[in-house]
Write a structure and sequence with these properties.
With 461 residues, this protein is mainly beta. The chain folds into two domains: 264 residues, Jelly Rolls; 149 residues, Jelly Rolls, CATH 2.60.120.10. It is built from three helices and 30 strands. Strand 21 and strand 22 form a beta hairpin.
């Protein structure tokens, strides 16, 4: 079926469409008609504009939303540093930590669950490039949490858009725009600045995050594919307006700002938006709805055909970040080595596994909740076991990746690894090369006889 059969059933309603202009009101008549900022908005609400791009950004890139709320987001005490000695997801600014730029292929064992921390404190930067203060680059995180956020806390990142990829457990996310339930095999994007609170209705959670410091995600161009396939526009889901009415309790708004944590107090809930309209909002997508494209004659196509979302650089066709998946699919190519070829790439490739077994890594070292990083021009490809099998298997139509979902964060940037990712997590596999590629044997056979510039047919390979 072209959708995922989730163990945990959906409990919220959504609006459909990627990049669509949505509007939603939890109370009928809360949205002004025509005007965005009337002198007196309906029901005594405050009008507030949330800008995800510059006001003067081109129309096709412009992302803004109008919010109609009980109290504006600015009604809080000053932000103060919080846990400044222990919380830093921007380690290049820390005197005793740094980003390690290394050419080695890296692979990690599954990252541990941590039942002692909430969402905010579960975030660990594994790798990244650039600087959120300059709105350039990306950060790659692992999250592993076991506790709900405090009932009177909300969190936002001023540094970038969060693309969240759950691997274990369920995220119940209350955002300013409404509620979203996110399960393994779904993704969720929470744009820069949007406040939210995460609870864990099914216990501990674990997964991956790509934080995009520059620009926003879009759907890839389809070119000669035409108007449909890959991730279809209609399958993205945005929340409907939902609000709480609380102007008596003390709330703490947590901000990740330049990688550091800050906190501000306010005497009202941040989840008080009664109605909203615009183009800037959180959304989710079921990876089971991805419509794959592939070769039906010969050769293995480039993995760009599996791109779900992209964030382009200032040079068309070159991405600061691509989110790519490898879902269940049929392989039918004739006379073809069907797994990915051996290659060196000008792009960096960070891979993770949500569940199952990735068809290009059958040796057992690439596991759900683990990861790998093949940096700029680091040679990689199928492990020796996979190569041997794929070189000799009978080439008949074959479905690969059943009950599996691997993904890749790909970037044109050279991705450095943090101290936590390289050392402190204690998950790096020291035998990655020894297991994967060092066992490969030479297969070349020099032809014994040359006639008319051609090898004797019996000596050809």
């Amino acid at each position: 079926m072209p959708f995922t059969q989730f163990a945990v059933k959906e409990k919220y309603r959504y609006q459909n469409g990627f990049g669509s202009y949505h509007e939603s009101e939890a109370v009928e008549g809360a949205l002004p008609i025509g005007a965005n900022s009337p002198q007196k908005p309906p029901y005594g609400l405050y009008a507030e504009k949330l800008s995800g791009t510059a006001f003067t950004a081109p129309r096709h890139e412009n992302l803004q939303s109008w919010l109609y709320r009980i109290l504006p987001a600015s009604a809080h005490s000053p932000f103060e540093p919080r846990e400044s000695s222990t919380y830093n997801t921007n380690p290049e600014n820390k005197p005793h930590e740094k980003i390690h730029q290394i050419p080695n292929q890296l692979r990690w064992d599954p990252f541990d669950l941590d039942e002692t921390v909430d969402w905010v404190h579960s975030l660990h930067l594994v790798a990244g490039a650039g600087d959120p203060t300059m709105k350039s680059g990306i950060g790659i995180f692992i999250f592993a949490a076991g506790k709900d956020m405090d009932p009177h806390e909300a969190f936002y990142s001023a540094d970038g858009d969060f693309l969240i990829v759950p691997q274990h457990g369920v995220l119940d996310i209350q955002t300013e725009f409404g509620k979203i339930l996110v399960r393994p095999n779904e993704i969720c994007v929470i744009p820069r600045g949007i406040r939210y609170r995460v609870t864990l209705p099914e216990g501990p959670v674990r997964g991956y995050i790509l934080e995009l410091y520059q620009g926003h995600f879009s759907l890839p161009e389809l070119g000669p594919i035409g108007s449909n396939c890959l991730a279809n526009t209609r399958d993205f889901q945005a929340p409907v307006a939902y609000f709480d009415e609380d102007t008596t309790n003390t709330w703490h708004v947590l901000s990740k700002f330049a990688g550091h944590l800050f906190s501000a107090k306010q005497t009202h809930t941040p989840f008080d938006i009664v109605a909203w309209h615009g183009l800037y909002y959180p959304y989710k997508y079921d990876l089971g709805r991805f419509n794959t494209i592939g070769s039906i004659s010969f050769d293995h196509p480039d993995p760009s055909i599996f791109t779900v979302l992209t964030a382009q650089s200032d040079h068309p066709g070159i991405a600061v970040a691509d989110f790519v998946i490898f879902p269940p699919r049929w392989l039918v190519q004739e006379d073809t080595f069907r797994p990915p070829w051996y290659h060196r790439n000008t792009m960096s490739e960070f891979m993770g596994l949500i569940h199952g077994q990735y068809d290009a890594k059958t040796g057992g070292g690439f596991q759900p909740a683990g990861a790998s990083l093949h940096n700029v021009m680091s040679a990689h490809g199928p492990d020796a076991t996979t190569h041997e099998k794929a070189s000799n298997v009978e080439l008949k139509p074959n479905k690969v990746g059943e009950r599996s979902m691997a993904f890749m964060f790909e970037s044109c940037l050279m991705v450095g690894v943090t101290d936590w990712g390289l050392k402190k997590c204690k998950k790096v596999q020291e035998d990655y090369n020894a297991e994967s590629w060092e066992p490969l044997k030479p297969r070349f056979k020099r032809p014994s006889k040359i006639e008319n510039g051609k090898a004797d047919s019996k000596d050809e390979i």
